[in-house]
Amino acid sequence: MNRDDHAMSQAAAWEDTGAGEEAPVLSAQRVEKTYRNGTRALDEVKLDIRRGEFVSLLGPSGCGKSTLLKMFAGLEEPSHGHIRWWGKNLATVGTPERTLAMVFQEATLMPWASVEQNARLPLDLRGMPRAESEPRVREALRLVGLENFHQVLPRELSGGMQMRASIARALATKPNLLLMDEPFGALDEFTRNRLDADLRDIWSRQDLTVVFVTHSIYEAVFLSSRVIVMAARPGRVIADVAIDAPGPRDEAFRISAPFMQYCKTLSDYLTLANQQGGGHEH
């Protein structure tokens, strides 16, 4: 049996998974990505993400973090291997309890539309009646602290507030899975820390699974229940670190001994990631 035949038989087995254990929200099984120009972006990535987790993808530039996130969003397809959403094919995404939304690096707001109109856009595209969409949008804006800015245009907002509006647009769809591609990377440290704290609070209050791409060790430790460290050339997982830190994630946590130790652990793995060039998963 060749590799593709074996992968097809595996896929059939995953589809027939029984109801005993809840399927992962996301499952990447031996996922590879090679582009037409021969660039090998990902090499046999194996990863399960379960309901309610906040998982950060951390690694050097070119390690395939954003490529993997786009696959999770259904925007790219693997060259080999399979991705499953709640144990099913992508075609089932969007059905009850299986919805996803993505927040990109840029806020990508419509400049001529108000914050409220921007947040309502995906619901309008679905043809949702205004009586149903307006409460959703109001709640989403409240969650991100923009309830008093609903009629403001994007150009009147700071960069951080524009990103809040982008997050509100995603939350208005009531996703079960939220994918975020380094959304705070272009912001100053103070704004970034404040948005991290707000995002962590939103996640803790919602039935939400989050996959978050970042280059920041400090951000990954503050936000995550797990951090996946990836090495480049080609991208692969070299470490899966649980951030088991009870108590609130607040400013005191940022200067605590456990926080510093987690940062040191991830820094060591990133040093390894930068040194490796074609090794194997550890």
Task: Describe the protein.
One of its GO terms (molecular function) is ATP binding. This is ABC transporter ATP-binding protein. Residues 1-23 are annotated as: Disordered. Keywords: ATP-binding, Cell membrane, Membrane, Nucleotide-binding, Transport. Residues 26-257 form the ABC transporter domain. Helix 3 runs parallel beside helix 5 (159-171), helix 4 packs across helix 5 (159-171) and helix 7 (217-223) crosses helix 9 (257-275). Strands 5-6-7-3-8-9 form a six-stranded mixed beta sheet, sandwiched between helices. With 282 residues, it is α/β, with parallel strands linked by helices. It is built from nine helices and nine strands. The protein starts with a helix and ends in a 7-residue tail after the last helix. The protein has helices at residues 3-15, 65-72, 115-125, 130-143, 159-171, 189-205, 217-223, 251-254, 257-275; strands at residues 26-34, 40-49, 54-58, 80-85, 100-103, 177-181, 209-214, 226-231, 236-242. The protein folds into two domains: 23-99 and 176-282, Rossmann fold (3-Layer(aba) Sandwich); 111-174, no CATH class. Residues 1-19 and 278-282 have low confidence and may be disordered.
Distance between the termini: 27 Å
Average pLDDT confidence is 89
Beta strand count: 9
Q: What's the CATH architecture of the largest domain?
A: 3-Layer(aba) Sandwich
Order of helices and strands: HEEEHEEHHHEHEHEEHH
* Secondary structure tally, helices: 9
What is the percent of helical residues?
25-40%
CATH superfamily of the largest domain: P-loop containing nucleotide triphosphate hydrolases
Q: Main beta sheet: strand number and arrangement?
A: 6 strands, mixed
What is the domain tally? 2
Strand arrangement, largest sheet? Answer: 5-6-7-3-8-9
Radius of gyration: 19 Å
Uncertain parts: 1-19, 278-282
**What is the CATH domain class of the largest domain?**
Alpha Beta
Q: Strand-residue fraction?
A: 15-25%
Which descriptor suits the 3D outline?
A: globular
Q: What class, by secondary structure content?
A: alpha/beta
* CATH fold-type name of the largest domain: Rossmann fold
InterPro entries: AAA+_ATPase, ABC_transporter-like_ATP-bd, ABC_transporter-like_CS, ABC_transporter_ATP-bind, P-loop_NTPase
Protein name: ABC transporter ATP-binding protein
GO molecular function: ATP binding
Family: Belongs to the ABC transporter superfamily.
